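Researcher: We're reviewing a set of sequences before deciding which ones to prioritize for further study. For each one, I'd like a predicted 3D structure that I can look through quickly. This is Cellulase. If possible, include the structure in token form so it fits the rest of the review sheet.
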Amino acid sequence: MTPADWLIWTVRASVRPRHCRAGWLVLLLAVFPVLATAAPYQWRNVAIGGGGFVTGLVFHPAEPDLLYARTDVGGAYRWDQASGRWSALTDWLGRDDANLTGIESLAVDPRDPQRVYLAAGTYTHPRVGNGAILRSSDRGATFARTDLPFKLGGNELSRGNGERLAVDPHQGGILLLGSRSNGLWRSDDHGAHWQEVTTFPAIARSAQASAPAWNGTQQIGIVFVQFDARSGRAGSPTPVIYAGVSTTTGPAILRSTDGGRAWQPLPGQPTGLRPTRMAQGSDGRLYIAYADLPGPDRMGNGALWRFDIKQARWQDISPVPQSSDTQGDGFGWGAVAVEAGNPDVVMASTFNRFGPHDDIFRSTDGGRSWTPVIAGARFDHGNAPWTAHASPHWMADVQIDPFDPRRVLFVTGYGLWASRDVRAADHGQPVQWWFQNDGLEETVPLDLVSPGQGAHLLSALGDIDGFRHDDLTVSPLQYAGPRLTNSESIDAAAQSPSHVVRSGTVRHRLHDEVRAAWSNDGGRTWQAFVSEPPDGEGAGRIRLGSDGGRVLWHTLRGSHWYTDDHGRHWQAVRGLPNTAVVVADTRSPAHWYGYDAASGALLRSDDGGASFVADRVRLAPAPVLTAELRADPQQGGLVYVGAGPQGLLRWRAGDLQRVAGVDAVHSLGVGKGAPGRDVASVFVAGTVEGVHGLFRSDDGGARWLRIDDAAHQFGQIQRVTGDPRLHGRVYFATGGRGIVYGDPQ
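Model: Here's the predicted structure for Cellulase, in token form for your review sheet.
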């Protein structure tokens, strides 16, 4: 028993008021904390493999096999050569710091393999906080944090450019960070404190260093900083430094020869395009990838240039012309790399050349001639079969192993590929690639369901539809049948779990594809609904009655509809506001429940969801609340309401009990009850007795056990889902770390 571990004991009020107005029957339960020993959980990822944009890779130049990866929304990773897996470095970030799970840039200390730095911050909009520098002296096992006075944009335009963060190779206490809107910043104490380099040219802060985005204009600023190690000596600051500003109208490549105090444009540089990445060979020559836009959303022009420092001469060495784009909309150059031991070996990637396809080109003569390495290559999809349906794109970074130049890795919008025989291309042979993503999980799950039989988990995912997981440790193929771009909602019938439905979106919906599908074999095969309801835009929330016979679909920007024949006919649900969420009773097909946070109304249906009436109990209105309802799988008629800052409530018809001690609920799940219990286990991601975390109760909310810990926070936990067959098992969605599941140890 330790003082840090708490169980919360709630004692139900035994006396009800004799008279109570309808809507006011909310019983508050008294709370008495007691000390207890918390049972630890083992946390693992459900195996999918990749699934999101890996935005950068960094090899350590002085230690073999020390490799880091950064992602746009899923944190940072270190490669573990012994296990052949990636290790997540940022799972300790909690909900309040979820914005730091987007990594803008990553840097290592070239002379100290223990030190690694992350420039963390996902967005720059007003609703999020500032970015931070996360600094580690033990390869990412632990981090110290320095908050920055500005925001970072790890999931914004130019997120594949880089690296913005750099460590002086001769004096490791010196770091430079190129920002989006606030110029160049410097630290002289290993990232603990920062100050602006006020002498850096103002163009980095100006509108000239911005780009058009889907939501207006985004400031891009400085996209890379690079020290010229050849110019310095150990123990002294490196004098020559380069920086790239994302601009097409002014000097984009700047150089300092005095350690960063003064900066001048590199003479004779090309104009009209903006730099994305730069690599320097051991002979000093610079290779710079350019594009008209920073990516990844769009690029329509670009070039690859080489700068010979000794001769002060620029040369366009683009491997293929713009005319090679068969779609005719142009393309940019996303990445460039130079072999550490041979400055004539250069590799560069096209970006957004979808016709015929993006490619990586390789030169062994400093850029005079080039060979493609993707065209004709062989890709091993064995450890992630779903990748056979994806094409390499968004190749924003290519890295050559400094200790084994046969080994090359490149990133994509859905993970990263690796090869150990890239030199095969030099002899006209196909290059072998394998999907090096074991342990790196970056999907964005949008909904989860654990059926009562068959596969333990069915998922709805952003970008890559979803999966049936018969084995949580093996990456399967995506759903067979009609495909969705985003599967956004999924449900299985409680008493007939082979019946499953899902809804979502279809990108480029050219043939009026129906954006929902059903399965009667537990998600093995799927068929599209016959039609969609008369209003809405697909997606939304879709739910099944307990016997699998009736489907309720609340379409995006539409109303609630029901069908008994897989969409051949649709009927409007009566009495259910468009702002309400619903859930079916787990025992009776006739009973459904709804909660309208906008009005606070709790609603019931006794005719299979065809119509709803307000219960006599209700909550206070909460118009901006995203609420969750979960029906107890072991007791018919019992529903748990996750009501955000109003906490957790147990609801039966006419009777609403607020579970005291639960201060806020961000996500709510139910699963198999403890042995001997007649109620389900309840899982809450939220705040209990002032403590933020993930909690489990085995007695309907009377006592709570915290099941996460300081090392396992996973950013923003969503879509909490219990397993109806395994007591204690819980699944949840993250904002970019894939699907996580936990079991009591």
